[in-house]
Automatic annotation (TrEMBL):
NCBIfam families: bla_class_B_core (NF012229), bla_subclass_B3 (NF033105). Its EC number is 3.5.2.6. SUPFAM superfamilies: alpha/beta-Hydrolases (SSF53474), Metallo-hydrolase/oxidoreductase (SSF56281). It comes from Massilia aerilata. This is Subclass B3 metallo-beta-lactamase. One of its GO terms (molecular function) is beta-lactamase activity. Keywords: Hydrolase, Signal. Belongs to the esterase D family. Residues 45-238 form the Metallo-beta-lactamase domain. Residues 1-22 form the signal peptide.
């Protein structure tokens, strides 16, 4: 019988270390047939399954980093070619199951398929911060050739048909895969059961995770999904959790029929449900409660334009549930910081300054990307022509210049989403940005100004790409006679050039106050009938401190007095 791995220990004892588990994850294991054209090619601690056909093969999971050569050798030992693998399917986006996929994809040239949440992690190589196990998760080599699949989508390859069954909860992107295999005139339903256990890293809560508030509901739904699958042969992502080694021991006498267990999925679900109950009891007794912002919601959004996954955070006014009216709506960039700040300021201005209430929408960074990587790429209008930057994400080249497409994503996908799900007054949309976020706002203003009625833009990075936005402002003026929008500009009085330095269009020599005055003056000089701008400089504030003041004064400008 195989050595019990880290996860199994955590199920029994509640704790273990990653290092202790890693050795067992890579334990050697000869490959063997499971049923028909389906083979086990994983390690002694982590499952990987090969489904074969004359048209090419499908591999499910790639084990931990370092397991790729062992899995490839298993494929060859069975008489198949790694180069004939056309698709690699991912169960979930943890490094112990996906860490070896990049190397196997490179060997085979296969396309990697995964749920949208998993695909985002695989493309970036960075763990999902929403994951309850996040602090203990390792980065992986990014995989560019990755495509997201839909729940219920059937992956077809010649005679093969493998169905994706989303089973989130253990991770946001967890996916169980099902197909059929035949031998000896009998056809069996095969299930690759992804993990459905409710686990959290030390210091984090599974059920009270503010970044993944639906984790418990998701895992309960996923357990029910697995429980009701047509299931004759089950291979779980961690093989011992579906009693694979006990069944393997009977293969010598029973043949592949040893793996047939029509109650396998129900037993697997029962174990997961029992562990969920244990987790809930433990967190109820010992875990501190997370602080949750009242009247807030989180929605996952897959951008069709960008083929990336994002979230929108929505804060509803206190009167929303008890009224039928529509509310002005703020769209706030850099949501990790900007959303809670904007929510709190909007609420205080309503309660204590008599301003009308508003819906606040926070625009997250792309899932799987760091804040620096995501905002550099999504908020900037061009690729810098002279300045050079280092990537903050190992294995990924630095990216810039996608503000045009990201702005279209906001206007064409996020805004309609909010309009269709909430009582938002879509005639009073307010864009809020700061720094690079304001650069994005200017890009929208100069390309699709009517996307928002009002813009609150703090400390825009007008030095970016040698002042490219000044060039774009001139180009707009040459092509247009009007600009229908109102803009509130704000900046800190300390965002000036140090004494003795010569001003230039570069980050290190920029006078951001002078730049903004110059840009505002250029807009005013055209006397657009539909444009109104206002600029305020806040004394004794710098780039880091000014945003709350810019937002407060901007909201006082654009929100009406309610009383």
């Amino acid at each position: 019988m195989k050595t019990t791995i880290c996860l199994a220990l955590s199920l029994a004892l509640g704790a273990c270390t990653i290092d202790a588990g890693a050795a067992d994850w890579n334990a050697p294991q000869d490959p063997f047939p499971l049923y028909g054209n389906t083979y086990y090619v994983g390690t002694g601690g982590i499952s990987a399954v090969l489904i074969t056909s004359p048209a090419g093969h499908i591999l499910i999971d790639g084990g931990p980093p370092g397991a790729s050569n062992q899995i490839a050798e298993h494929v060859r030992k069975l008489g198949f070619k790694v180069e004939d693998i056309r698709y690699i399917l991912n169960g979930h986006e943890h490094f112990d199951h996906a860490g070896g996929i990049a190397a196997l994809q490179k060997m085979s040239g296969a396309t990697v398929l995964a749920s949208p949440a998993s695909a985002a992690v695989l493309r970036s190589g960075q763990p999902d911060e929403r994951d309850a196990q996040y602090p203990g998760l390792q980065a992986m080599t990014p995989i560019a050739k990755t495509r997201a699949v839909r729940d219920g989508e059937v992956v077809k390859l010649g005679p093969l048909a493998v169905t994706a069954r989303f089973t989130p909860g253990h991770t946001p992107g967890a996916t169980t895969w099902t197909w059929r295999a035949s031998e000896g005139g009998k056809t069996m339903n095969i299930v690759y059961g992804d993990s459905v256990n409710a686990l959290a890293a030390d210091g984090r809560s599974f059920s009270r995770n503010p970044l993944y508030p639906n984790a418990r509901a998701d895992v309960e739904r996923s357990i029910a999904t697995v429980e009701t699958l047509d299931c004759d042969v089950l291979v779980s992502a961690h093989p011992e959790l579906s009693d694979l080694w006990e069944k393997k021991a009977r293969q010598a006498t029973l043949g592949n029929a040893a793996f047939v267990d029509r109650d396998g999925c129900r037993k697997y679900a029962a174990k997961a449900r029992a562990y969920l109950a244990k987790t809930m009891a433990a967190e109820s007794d010992t875990a501190p409660s997370a602080y949750l912002l009242d009247d807030t919601e989180v929605r996952d959004v897959h951008s069709q334009a960008l083929n990336r996954d994002y979230q929108v955070f929505v804060a509803l006014p206190e009167s929303y549930r008890s009224s039928a009216r529509r509310y002005p709506v703020l769209f706030v960039t850099d949501a990790a910081y900007g959303f809670p700040v904007a929510r709190s300021i909007a609420q205080r201005l309503s309660k204590h300054a008599g301003l009308e209430e508003a819906i606040v929408v926070g625009l997250s960074y792309a899932k799987g990307d760091s804040a620096v990587y995501s905002r550099r790429r999504d908020y900037t209008p061009s690729i810098p022509r002279t300045q050079s930057y280092a990537s903050d994400t190992p294995g990924r080249a630095v990216a810039f210049g996608e503000a045009q497409t990201y702005g279209a994503f906001i206007a064409d996908e996020v805004v309609p989403l909010i309009g269709s799900h909430y009582r938002a007054d879509m005639r009073r949309k307010i864009f809020v940005g700061h720094s690079y976020g304001s650069l994005l706002g200017l890009q929208i203003l100069l390309t699709r100004p009517a996307s928002f009625e009002h813009y609150i833009l703090g400390s825009p990075s007008l030095w970016f790409d040698r002042g490219v936005m000044f060039d774009r402002e001139k180009a707009y003026a040459q092509a247009h006679k009007d600009m229908t929008a109102s803009v509130f500009f704000g900046i800190g009085g300390l965002e000036t050039l140090a004494a003795g330095k010569k001003r230039s269009r570069s980050e290190e020599d920029a006078d951001m106050v002078a730049d903004l005055r110059e840009f505002d003056a250029a807009l005013k000089s055209h006397r657009y009938p539909g444009l109104a701008t206002r600029l305020e400089v806040f004394a004794d504030e710098d780039h880091a401190s000014v945003f709350p003041l810019v937002l407060t004064h901007g909201l006082r400008t654009y929100l009406k007095k309610a009383r």
